[in-house]
Amino acid sequence: MMSSVNKAALYPGSFDPITNGHLDIIQRALQIFDFLIIGVAANPEKHTLFTDSERMAMLAEAVDGLDRIEVTSFTGLTTAFAKERGVRAIIRGLRMVSDFEFEFQMALMNHKLMPEADTVFLMPSERYTYLSSSLIKDIARHQGQIDCFVPSNVSKALKGKFARK
Ligand code: ADP
């Protein structure tokens, strides 16, 4: 039977900065869910290259033009935020086997904290499986070519951060 209930999902992450791999996951999630909340985690203990508002603004610009999306930041537990927003699906990306251990542990713990929610793992296109925000930052730091891995606004921001003085 067809259900008319709108299904929303939460995609939480640091997005420091957003890459084409994240965008691939976002597009896949939109094919399954009716609405996607992208939650930029503001975690004072986690050192990030870009500030909370920079990460939010870059992400918002990168997904500008896509419908059925809300970009917002949140603090504290992902499950607390999911509960607050009434969302029962948490999206995470799985690139390689190396992601699995950490993601599996997080998914099980989140399920313990919020039994009504499930983590939905999505795999990106093969060409993004080796892409990570930290690798991109390393390449940019050493003046390497990053244009094909990140949206153009992010590329500009990274070049600005690491411009030779
Ligand atoms: P976090 O600090 O929460 O891991 P990230 O921004 O690094 O934040 O990642 C958020 C989610 O996006 C994670 O589930 C991660 O596995 C996934 N992700 C990151 N890069 C990629 C990529 N290239 N392809 C698919 N998923 C990715």
Question: What order do the helices and strands come in, and which of them pair?
Answer:
Layout: E1 8-13, H1 20-32, E2 35-41, H2 52-62, E3 69-74, H3 78-85, E4 89-93, H4 97-113, E5 118-122, H5 133-141, H6 152-161
Parallel strand pairs: 1-2, 2-3, 4-5
Key terms:
5 strands, 165 residues, 41% helix, three-stranded parallel β-sheet, Rossmann fold, binds adenosine-5'-diphosphate, two-stranded parallel ribbon, alpha/beta
Characterise the protein shown here.
It is built from 6 helices and 5 strands. It is globular, with a radius of gyration of 16 Å. The model has no long low-confidence stretch (mean pLDDT 94). It has helices at 20-32, 52-62, 78-85, 97-113, 133-141, 152-161; strands at 8-13, 35-41, 69-74, 89-93, 118-122. A 3-stranded parallel β-sheet has the order 1-2-3, sandwiched between helices. Strands 4-5 form a two-stranded parallel sheet. With 165 residues, the protein is of the alpha/beta class. The structure holds adenosine-5'-diphosphate (ADP). Residues 13-15, 19, 21-22, 25, 92-93, 95, 99, 124, 128, 131-133 line the site of adenosine-5'-diphosphate. Adenosine-5'-diphosphate (ADP) binds next to helix 1 and strand 4.
Proper CATH architecture: 3-Layer(aba) Sandwich
Number of domains: 1
Adjacency order of strands in the biggest sheet = 1-2-3
Q: Which sequence of SSEs, written as H and E, runs from N to C?
A: EHEHEHEHEHH
Q: Distance N terminus to C terminus? A: 63 Å
Helix content: 40-55%
Instruction: Give the number of helices.
Output: 6
| Mean pLDDT reading | 94
DSSP strand (E) fraction? 15-25%
Instruction: List unreliable stretches of 5+ residues.
Output: none
> What's the CATH first level?
Alpha Beta
Silhouette: globular
Specify the structural class: alpha/beta
